[in-house]
Amino acid sequence: ISNACRHIPYGVQQPAVSSQLLKLEKDLGTRLFHRKPFNLTDAGQQLYDFAAPFFGQIDDVEKSIRGEALSRLRLAGPTQVMRNHLPYLLSELEDEFPDFQLRLFESDFENAKSLIERNEIDLAIAVDPGTAITGLRSATLIELPLALITPKRTQYKNVKEIIGAGAAGKERLISLRAGERIPALFTQTLRQMKRRWPVALEVGSTDMITNYVSNGLGIGITVRSPGNLFPKDVKVFELKAFPPLPILLLWRGELSGIPLRLKEKLMTRAASLDE
Question: Is 155 helix (H, G, I), strand (E, B) or coil?
Answer without folding.
Answer: coil
